[in-house]
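Action item from last week, closing it out:
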Amino acid sequence: MDPQMLIELVTMKMPFGKYKGWVLSRLPEPYLVWLHNKGFPSGRLGHLLATMYEIKLNGLEYLLQGLKKF
């Protein structure tokens, strides 16, 4: 896994939708499940959202705890 990706998950904000302005790591799991079922957007954002979905699905949020200070 790319360490830069983990930093982006705790710093990048959702650019659109109901949760516009929310940091990706703070998006609620039901929203990520909905996006997963609908289809993640293409590009870097979609890859980050898919990664966040997998992190939350597998209970791995602790991986991001030390990075939230960035």
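Closing note: The chain has a mean pLDDT of 92.
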